[in-house]
Amino acid sequence: MPGRSVPSRRTVLRSAALTPVAGLGMAACSPGDDGAAPARPTAPVDLGADGEVAKGGTKLYRDQNVVVSRAEDGSLKAFSTVCTHARCPINKLEGTKLICPCHGSEFDARTGEVLHAPASVPLIELPVEVKQGRIIASPGV
User: Domain of life of the organism in this record (predicted)?
Assistant: First the structure.
């Protein structure tokens, strides 16, 4: 059309490359992000009944990105299950081992410690308590 400028192929490709793709959000892979703060709950989260985690056991709460373990003495620990390597949500728990689906990082669900690279930073510990028979995880500070 006369008088109307047509963008160059380079302009169109550059714009497409800069446009965010819906749905990638936190699951996008960002190599080299070790040490960056992954997402964690922003408000206290009711995970379920206190009896859901047995002594010596662990439970993965996929929808809340939290894992909870209970020591033999009954004390609870909770960790964010957003991988510290590339911020992928961890969706697999085998015994007490969390396995990230993106690059295979493995973490101890009881301590948050890295068991297998590429992650090199432990999971973020979250405050957890039992209130009125419910397990509540908080975002921490």
Answer: Bacteria
